[in-house]
Amino acid sequence: MSVFAAVMTGKGTGAIATIQLYGDSATDILKRILPPQPQKPIEFTTGKILLAVIKSGDKTIDQVTIGCEGNNTYAINCHGNPLIVEEIMQLLRQYGVELLTAEQLLYKTSAENNIIAIEAKLTLPKIKTIQGTQIILNQIDSGLTASAKNWLQNPPEKIAAEAQNIIDKSKIAKFIIFGCQIVLAGPPNTGKSALLNQLCGRQKAIVADIKGTTRDWVSANCQIGSLAIELIDTAGLDDKLASDIEKAAQQTAMELVSQADIVLLVLDNSEPANQIGKSFTNILTNKKVLAVLNKSDLPFVAQRSGNLSCLFETGNMPNAVSISAKLGTGIDYLCDEIQRLAGVENFDPNQPVCFTARQEQLLTQLTKGKSKEAAHSLITELLSGNCKP
Ligand SMILES: Nc1nc2c(ncn2[C@@H]2O[C@H](COP(=O)(O)OP(=O)(O)OP(=O)(O)O)[C@@H](O)[C@H]2O)c(=O)[nH]1
Ligand SMILES: [Mg+2]
User: Fold this and answer.
1) Separation of 210 CA from ligand 1 center, angstroms?
2) Given pLDDT bands bounded at 50, 70 and 90, which one contains residue 43?
């Protein structure tokens, strides 16, 4: 075996970057690139974190910390400037180190070829919440790995039912792990922008008493419980707003609604909401929708149910929450309802979920009631994979 190195942190400028160094003579390589310390030679003891300066000849490249993670396994934590990272990588290459991608190095360092563990490690930088990290880490030894190992002793029908359950639960887990997109839509002047500002805690979108204030969509991030949310405020929908720009803005709003994980239909409960066309309510069919009856600080001109029933058939009526985006009342209850709608309330982070397209595809095949042999081959592939990058 020789020595390998890979940049484990994402591309771009971060404060810190990590270069993983691994292989039978990794310690010798480090001894050569770090200046000798005649008084007290550096000890590369597992578990130690060393402070060191990396030099190329007389030129200092960077001051780094080196995590001694195991026998001939080191994490070099340098400054994140891509030029510094590249210089260290090229220096390692000059000393005979083979440069790899993060994926390739993880495959090399994974002793048991546990592909779910590798996928988990590769997913970690993309996780949006602490709860998401818990879910992913739980899949390595328990969660998905444990379920798949048990299946090797189970009949195909049991496997099919459990695989379907995991796929269903994973849709919710993905909201917690990777975040979810919530689109605020509805007629003009109902308070969509005011609500975006209220939820994200700053004045991100312009609020004004003029119909059609928001044209291009505005986005902001916020966290509600275990949900990392990208909020998107859209142009008000009204068939009477018919200039080219207004029509284009409304078209974009409809597209954003059709792609949303959750739609907050913001209505002004002091005004009738009949200006929205049928094409809009059609897009909402089969979507997770919550009606937000805003301006509850004003007297109701229309009845809540009246406002919704002019837009929806009785059977398709979404749940409704009364708020005042202006005063901030009802926002806590709205946040609870959003979590309920996303299904993340009381989500058990220990349960098995899938989190990559590869896993989902294999589980989908397992739901189709395979023969015992075919099921076992799919489970083995799920656990150990059959291809390497
Ligand atoms: N009384 C009251 N006024 C509100 C409330 N929320 C928003 N408004 C007012 O309603 C007007 C419109 O608010 P916006 O947030 O700009 O409405 P919008 O839905 O984004 O409007 P468009 O961008 O035109 O679609 C502003 O004058 C706000 O101050 C509320 O809860 N109560
Ligand atoms: Mg607006």
Assistant:
1) 9
2) confident
Q: Probe ligand 1: pick from 183, 184, 190, 241, max atoms within 8 Å of CB?
A: 190
Domain ranges of the chain: 3-109, 115-176+348-384, 177-342
CATH 3.30.460.10 fits 177-342, yes or no: no
Mutate to test the pocket of ligand 1, among 193, 257, 297, 321 (most ligand atoms within 8 A of CB): 193
CATH number assigned to the domain with residue range 3-109, chosen from the 4 options 2.170.130.10, 3.40.50.150, 3.20.20.70, 3.30.1360.120: 3.30.1360.120
User: Which two three-digit tokens encode residue 25?
Assistant: 């003579």
Radius of gyration of the chain (CA): 27
Nearest CA residue ID for atom 27, ligand 1: 209
Give, rounded to a whole angstrom, the gap between the first and last alpha carbons of the chain.
18
Q: Which residues line ligand 1 (CB under 6 A)?
A: 188-194, 207-209, 211-214, 235-236, 294-295, 297-298, 324-326
Backbone angles phi, psi at 271, to 5 degrees: -135, 150
> CA separation (Å) from 357 to 225, 347, 351?
26, 21, 18
Cα of 354 vs its chain's centroid, Å: 13
The C-alpha atoms of residue 112 and residue 102 are separated, in whole angstroms, by 18
Tens-place pLDDT, residues 316-368: 788 999 999 999 999 999 999 999 999 999 899 999 999 999 999 999 999 99
Helices (H), 34-114: 82-94, 102-109
At 303, the pLDDT band (50, 70, 90 cuts) reads: low
